[in-house]
């Protein structure tokens, strides 16, 4: 206790007892010295308690953890950028679970390190990611923890073991300068090598371990790609960039977006602008062709966080997947994204595939060319195995559709006409190039000259009986 905590009424002391008074003052001085110099004194404890009650020194900024990639789905937990900070998700109610897959940084100051670890106790032999904040971050979504990259704002280093997305159990926030000091303070042996300290009886917590990781000048995935800066967004699938001081237009490979005056032009244009705003850094991947007939670079485009821009537009329902042979390196992936976008009826597909209205309660009409069940390259010699070459039509809607009078056409103009055929809801039918007996699931083109579908790439177009394009698939 402190001296001013003594009872208000002092003990009665005879004035003439000088030795006794001297002893009292000596003892009082000693107590005052001890309490003022001992760590953990009442004053320090009170200050510590005051700081704790305030929730650490207040620092502007918010870190939101999300269950889904891309900062989507439910928020798992929220904290600020106070330093130092450690949260074991299994021991605190501030975080609902350990299923986070992405985080959103808002108004985060520079000079801090954020670590997310799989192990709740901080064991770094399991998966973990380190995020170094280089410059103040106003708004940034780290869409997945399983990536390593760096830009002007931050550096992300993922230490892979068996996967981290959806398995984060610990959050740490530390001062980057303190970590740097810990690295430079490592003692050296006489031969100039870092000395290895003998094991102590009580080793420091794993969270205090310092790992020095060499990072490349560009993300590992972008090695060999062209680095460029976006200087203009032309439309949904074209941008203008600057590469080594030279400006060039870039046309995205494998996709096509609506043109001016067509439905969803403005939406796809805005989607592209949100993905690659002017001033952003992009990485360009070449396929086979260098330029198109208009002198534009043909490229796959990536963001520093590995977002595949071409694919993102298709997945959002803002672009069609369309093959432009011979540049088809990622075409299968783009087609798969389009099929998923159609199934989910996102973006433009919500309008194209659905005709249901609340007033009429009309059934959903959705006829697609299904890439997953089609086989455009039959085994062996295509001209000898034409029965095994087929295009698959699927009814994803809620009602049967009469296909009588409908037509399937390839790029060369070869056409198959449906005669007296109805496709039930949820059913599929394979239109085989060769000859055979028609059934409910298999129809035969019986084209005798040769195989129809080109192995190197082709486009299947489906028209209804009024010659309106219903579905199209390029491969």
Number of strands: 27
- The CATH homologous superfamily of the largest domain corresponds to Crystallins
Could you name the CATH class of the largest domain?
Mainly Beta
pLDDT averaged residue by residue? 77
What number of structural domains do the residues give? 4
In CATH, the architecture of the largest domain is Sandwich
Describe this structure in words.
This protein is α+β, with helices and mostly antiparallel strands. It folds into four domains: 51 residues, no CATH class; 122 residues, Crystallins (Gamma-B Crystallin, domain 1, Sandwich); 98 residues, OB fold (Dihydrolipoamide Acetyltransferase, E2P); 122 residues, Lamin Tail domain (Immunoglobulin-like, Sandwich), CATH 2.60.40.1260. Helices cover 16% and strands 28% of the residues. The chain is built from seven helices and 27 strands. The strands form seven sheets. Strands 3-10-5-6-9-8 form a six-stranded antiparallel beta sheet. Strands 11-12-13-16-15 form a five-stranded mixed β-barrel. The N and C termini lie far apart (82 Å).
